[in-house]
Amino acid sequence: MCCCNQVGVAFVRRCHCTMRARKHETNKESKHTLPGWGFGNSEMLEIREQFLRKKMAAEVEKAKEFTRANNKRVDRLGNYQLQIHDQIILLEVAKSTTETVDALRTGTAATKAILKDSNIDDMYKTMDEINEQTQEMKQIQEALSAPVGAAADFDEVSILRTISIFFLIAVFLHVDK
């Protein structure tokens, strides 16, 4: 009897004695069967292949689920990126609108200051001075465009008649040749 049985180890695990005995029995069995199973190597390999195929299919399914989850995460990140881009555009629009309103306020304040300092009577006076200067310029231009000396004696109508006669003579002479 083994010392292991006395202690009660046999109930928990096999004792070293039975393990040695099992090893000798395995050497005696055929090479085509697995010890204690009663299956041949080819049958066992088929069973093992089926088991591995099932395990592989499960792992492939896990990988597909992982890929789907990552694709969802990538899509979500893409949507977040688009939202951030939209927010940036909205902030730029708000900034330009604020700058425009500030410029309008500044322009309005400058216009008010100018109008406050100016008087409507001063404007009318300035407009009258401009009109007077314009009238004086017209008179000067008319004086400069009037003929002076011998050119003033010629009548415009008689000059045009003389030119017309010379033209008709030139045409008549040219046609005869």
Automatic annotation (TrEMBL):
InterPro entries: Snf7_fam. It is found in: Endosome. GO terms for cellular component: cytoplasmic side of plasma membrane; ESCRT III complex; multivesicular body. The keyword Repressor does not apply. The keyword Ribosomal protein does not apply. GO terms for biological process: late endosome to vacuole transport via multivesicular body sorting pathway; vesicle budding from membrane. Keywords: Endosome. Belongs to the SNF7 family. This is Uncharacterized protein. It comes from Musa balbisiana (Banana).
